[in-house]
């Protein structure tokens, strides 16, 4: 019976371990009702701490929101009315997530796990109209399935983005295919605080536009990705501000009698200020990247410390189990010795009883023998007496 129970527990633990090994992400937070279609076609209702494997399709409804934590500690928040497929997420190659509809907000770590080439993208986001490559950053992607418009805003780091050709939209793309798409010359880089999209009318990529700091902070502070990041008209309005300022400045200079040389000097100063501003932005981006690398290194060190602590706990548990087994063996040996002593005492009692029975038998025999001897002696004495009394009879 004990062997049967141990076998069942072993099989169950093996199945649980196997399921855990296949999972690539876990639901860490959920609001409202959301479902997932597993690779085997089974539909499950999402709940906290539920693990999902590759090939799962997550679908949210109105007023619902799901946050996932992947095996590399990256996070992805799926907004309302969205559909996302975990196309691929291996340990030794870049992951692929397909945004079928809606919006996602993702914070990707720089933990490359078992990937050998650290210079390639570690995660690809694909929609029907665009492909994006990420190494380690914070960004949001929105996709409208009706118009096939893809919008990308980068909160931290940078994201490479390129449109998909008509034939690429219809077929499955692997990591190498997406790498080639993002290596083409027409690709764009969307830096921190910038927004870009695939225009629904022209099917062309719009050049990245830097958003206002307050607008970026407002978008970044929201844990749930917004259905509409920003209207395109507002982006165009931001682009027009600089040109309007320049036109107004030219009109003022004409009225004030400023010479063309002076105006050109001022314009050159402005251009130089812009160039210096861009250089400063790049330097700030590099400094921020370095700071982020340091923060990521610290986070990785902490994660490694936690993993090492867990491994040490498991090793200590195994050592404790071995010590407990040894103690149990000693206790069992002592119990066996006591049982053996009791058995030996019982055997000795039985042997003593037998010896006592034999002694008793001998005493009884000796007693009987003495009785017989006494009877014979008395009988002899009576015969002697009779001979003494009747000697003539005896002679006769």
Describe the structure.
The protein contains 7 helices and 17 strands. The protein has 396 residues and is α+β, with helices and mostly antiparallel strands. The protein has 2 domains: 22-250, Sandwich (Jelly Rolls), CATH 2.60.120.1440; 259-387. It has a 17-stranded mixed sheet that branches. Strand 8 and strand 9 (95-107) form a beta hairpin. The longest helix has 130 residues, at 260-389. The N and C termini lie far apart (95 Å). Residues 10-20 have low confidence and may be disordered.
Per DSSP E runs of 2 or more residues, the count of β-strands stands at 17
Which stretches of 5+ consecutive residues score pLDDT under 50?
10-20
Main β sheet profile = 17 strands, mixed
Q: What is the N-to-C order of secondary-structure elements (H for helix, E for strand)? A: HEEEEEEEEEEEEEEHHEEEHHHH
Structural class: alpha+beta
Approximately how much beta-strand content do the residues carry? 15-25%
Helix content: 40-55%
Distance between the termini: 95 Å
In the CATH scheme, the class of the largest domain would be Mainly Beta
Oligomer: single chain
- Number of helical runs? 7
- Count structural domains: 2
Mean pLDDT comes to 83
Which overall shape is indicated by the principal axes computed on the Cα atoms? rod-shaped
CATH topology name of the largest domain: Jelly Rolls
Q: How many whole angstroms does the radius of gyration measure? A: 47 Å
CATH architectural grouping of the largest domain: Sandwich
